[in-house]
Structures are given as structure tokens and as C-alpha cells.
Amino acid sequence: MAIDPSISGGSAIDRWDELHRTLSAQERRMIIYSLMEAPQSERVPLPEAATAPGTSCDAEQMRIRLEHNHLPQMATAGYIRWERDPFCVQRGPRFKEAEAMFETIHDSIDQFPQSLITGCEIYEEMYRDGNR
Fold first, then answer.
1. CATH number at residue 96
2. Where is the DUF7344 domain (predicted)?
3. What is the pLDDT of residue 3?
């Protein structure tokens, strides 16, 4: 079901459930993080925006996973808009919901147990940035 950005769309509980589902996959977290790092109206290229730094992947396999799973889920939630040609993503009408979660994590990353940071590129970077 597609969202109508002009309405609030579902209860707060539904929005939280959607946010947690979206953030449950590393590729989707990387897309949100990549968009946060880019200027607000900028499109970011895929699959690069979905790939964690220092990791390698088969670009064609990643494209298939993104097109058939990750991007439709994120677009339906309203967090992103995406295009096939050129293959890119930009902020959607509800991007702020996901961005708020990342900002909260960033602001309190030093309070997280190390077991939730080590091995997760996004959170390791936030931890390094916050502890300089």
C-alpha cells in the first residue's frame, strides 16, 4: 500500500513498527545514512549508497535485492523515492522519521554497549565521531 504524504498515515504504533522494520536491514540503514550525509535535495547513486564502507558485493545481485525488496519497502513507508535510470535514491516525505532515529543514536552512541557498535560500520563511525 502506497502512502499519501499529505496525511499522517496510520497510528504512531504503526509508524514505529514501520521504522523498526526498515532499520532491520543493513542495506536500508546504509541508504538512510547515505542520504543524511548528502545535501537535502541531492540524489545518491545506488548500489553504492546501500553498501557499507570497506565491503564488496556483486553490484548486479545488490541491484536485484534493492529493486525487489529494500527500495519498495522504504518507498512504501515514505522514507525514500527511487529511480531505476539512473539508479538512485533521494529523501522521501517521511525521511525525517528515520533521520530522527539516527540522530538520537548519534547523540547517545557513547551510552550503547560496545556489543552493539563493534562490527557495524555506521555505528562505529558515529562512535568515533562522538568521542573525538
1. 1.10.10.10
2. 21-85
3. 45
Distance, CA of 38 to CA of 109 (rounded, Å): 21
Query: Taking 90 as the threshold, does the pLDDT of residue 121 lie above it?
Result: no
Tell me if 89 is assigned to some domain. yes
Instruction: Identify any residues that bridge with 45 across adjacent strands, giving them in sequence order.
Output: 88
Per the domain annotation, does 23 fall within a domain?
A: yes
- Annotate 9-63 with three-state secondary structure: CCCHHHHHHHHHHHCCCHHHHHHHHHHHHCCCCCCEECCHHHCCCCCCCCHHHHH
Beta carbons within 8 Å of 131's beta carbon, 6+ residues apart: 110
Domain that holds residue 80: 12-130
Summarize pLDDT for 29-46 with one digit per residue, the tens: 999 999 999 999 999 999
